[in-house]
């Protein structure tokens, strides 16, 4: 299990705390420090079952700076996220082949329901 975590984000902190309260010790990926790789960004979209644009924080200044829109190509979105990881919607919890965005934090618990079946 991994969490793409931004310690400055309250939802990210709440999600990490929730995981700990349920006995999980995820690998913490400080993506703002280590960055994101193109294949990692694409893999997150697959695990989340969403379009790449859905991974973006559209209110970030970087969204406008990179000229992004819902019509942006996948390659443009991926390259923008690699160069400006702040664009990643957060937090993202990955467990196996699935992932959830922790907004609200409790939504990540859906990952565990599937694991127990």
Description:
This protein is an alpha+beta fold and 117 residues long. The chain has one domain (2-115): Glutaredoxin. The protein is built from 6 helices and 4 strands. It has helices spanning 10-21, 31-34, 38-48, 61-65, 74-83, 110-115, and strands at 2-4, 27-29, 92-95, 98-101. Helix 1 (10-21) links the parallel strand 1 (2-4) and strand 2 (27-29). The relative contact order is 0.22. The mean pLDDT is 95.
Short recap of the structure:
By secondary structure, this protein is α+β, with helices and mostly antiparallel strands.
Fill in the keyword field for this structure.
117 residues, alpha+beta, 41% helix, single chain, Glutaredoxin, 12% strand, 4-stranded mixed sheet
Strand content: 5-15%
Largest sheet: 4 strands, mixed
What is the mean pLDDT? 95
Structural class: alpha+beta
Q: How would you sum up the global shape?
A: globular
Strand order of the largest sheet: 2-1-3-4
The number of helical segments is 6
Which CATH top level class fits? Alpha Beta
Order of helices and strands: EHEHHHHEEH
The span between the termini is: 17 Å
Total count of strands: 4
Counted up, domains total: 1
Radius of gyration: 14 Å
The CATH architecture designation is: 3-Layer(aba) Sandwich
CATH level-4 homologous superfamily: Glutaredoxin
In helices, the fraction of residues equals: 40-55%
Query: Which regions contain 5 or more consecutive residues with pLDDT less than 50?
Result: none
Per CATH, what is the topology?
Glutaredoxin
């Amino acid at each position: 299990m991994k969490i793409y975590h931004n310690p400055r984000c309250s939802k990210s902190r709440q999600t990490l705390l929730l995981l700990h309260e349920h006995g999980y010790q995820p690998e913490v990926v400080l993506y703002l420090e280590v960055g994101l790789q193109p294949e990692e960004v694409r893999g997150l979209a697959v695990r989340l079952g969403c379009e790449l644009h859905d991974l973006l924080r559209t209110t970030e200044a970087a969204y406008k700076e990179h000229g992004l829109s819902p019509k942006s190509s996948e390659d443009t979105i991926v390259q923008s996220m690699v160069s400006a990881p702040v664009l990643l919607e957060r937090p993202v919890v990955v467990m196996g082949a699935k992932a959830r965005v922790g907004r609200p934090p409790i939504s990540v618990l859906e990952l565990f329901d599937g694991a127990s079946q």
